[in-house]
Design brief:
Layout (H helix, E strand, L loop, with lengths): L1 H43 L4 H4 L3 H33 L6 E4 L3 E8 L11 H18 L6 H23 L9 E7 L7 H18 L12
Antiparallel strand pairs: 1-2, 2-3
Helix pairs in contact: 3-5, 4-5, 5-6
């Protein structure tokens, strides 16, 4: 009998074993799914607002980094161009770039941008320094990328011309700015002036669109 039971029971044994193996697997699958769902619940639940709140500070820091990166690039480009102009172009004949329409000509400018107000050099120096201070203070509340670029252009241009005011002759805070871009029928200017004008135009456009430096948008 034992031998017969062994022979008869042999075919059923794998099925029984498989059935026993499948039952825990079937029970485990819902448990694994429920565990996965439980793990996903906090990510989809109301608690997600708390991890996002500290992300505002890094986002603001990135905008500040963009501001100073743009300012540094504009300042370096202006400084290098002026060094080349003083070394290679000053006291030499102008270089024609596009016939009579555009040429490079080294000129010392004691006034403001584009040669205006030569009698108020000290005042323009103070204004440039004040602009730098205002931009630095505004950077703490900066969360808008376009505003970061605009303020970076203003800051780089102001620093470029302020450097000339401080370190060039005839004296501290009275130094003459190096200008060299001379379009036909227009005042001679430099890259710092261009950065200031581009930054100012961008700020006007952003203001018309209602975008504030902190990233909020308002409509009048």
């Amino acid at each position: 009998m034992a031998e017969a039971e062994r022979i008869i029971g042999m075919p059923g044994t794998p099925d029984a074993a498989r059935a026993e193996q499948e039952r825990p697997g079937d029970d485990a699958a819902p448990q694994e799914r429920s565990g996965a769902e439980a793990a996903q619940t906090p990510a989809d639940g109301p608690g997600t607002d708390e991890p996002d709140a500290p992300a505002e500070r890094p986002r603001g820091k990135r905008r500040i980094a963009v501001l100073f990166a743009v300012a540094g690039f504009a300042y370096a480009l202006d400084l290098i161009s002026k060094m080349i102009v003083v070394a290679k172009l000053e006291h030499h004949e102008p270089i024609e770039v596009i016939g009579d329409w555009l040429r490079f000509e080294a000129i010392r400018n004691a006034g403001a941008a584009f040669g205006f107000g030569e009698a108020f050099t000290v005042i323009f120096t103070v204004i440039a320094a004040a602009v730098i201070v205002v931009i630095a203070r505004l950077a703490r509340k900066l969360y808008s990328l376009p505003w970061a670029i605009a303020l970076g252009l203003l800051l780089g241009g102001a620093l470029g011309n302020l450097t000339d005011r401080i370190f060039r002759s005839p004296g501290v805070f009275e130094g003459a700015v190096v200008d060299f871009i001379a379009p036909k029928h227009f005042a001679v200017f430099n890259l710092a002036d261009s950065a200031i004008v581009c930054g100012g135009i961008l700020i006007v456009l952003l203001s018309f669109k209602g975008l504030d430096p902190d990233g909020t948008v308002h409509k009048d």
